[in-house]
């Protein structure tokens, strides 16, 4: 599966998670990606898109 949004190029971010006792552990935050049939350059294609791009209307869905 693709790990990046094909519209906004949003991807996985890594960082540190802090517990209540302030112990740091490494973790990753992944974008909420959906496989969507959308119209790209006039032709319907299946692409990986984050839900923020879907909600904001940056993608025209194919029916």
Low-confidence stretches: none
List the helices and strands in order.
Answer: EEEEH
Helical coverage, percent range: under 10%
Distance between termini? 23 Å
Order of strands in the sheet with most strands: 1-2
Q: Any idea what the shape is?
A: elongated
Radius of gyration: 16 Å
- β content, as a range? 35-45%
Instruction: Report the CATH topology name.
Output: Ribosomal Protein L24e, Chain: T
CATH superfamily: Ribosomal protein L28/L24
Q: What structural class do you assign from the helix and strand content?
A: mainly beta
User: In the CATH hierarchy, what is the architecture at level 2?
Assistant: Roll
Number of distinct helices? 1
Tell me the total number of β-strands.
Answer: 4
CATH classification class: Mainly Beta
Give a written overview of the molecule:
The structure is a single chain. This protein is mainly β. It has a single domain, classed as Ribosomal protein L28/L24 (Ribosomal Protein L24e, Chain: T), CATH 2.30.170. Helices cover 10% and strands 44% of the residues. It is built from 1 helix and 4 strands. The longest helix is centred in the C-terminal third of the chain and has 6 residues. The radius of gyration is 16 Å and the shape is elongated. The chain starts with 12 loop residues before the first strand and ends in a 7-residue tail after the last helix.
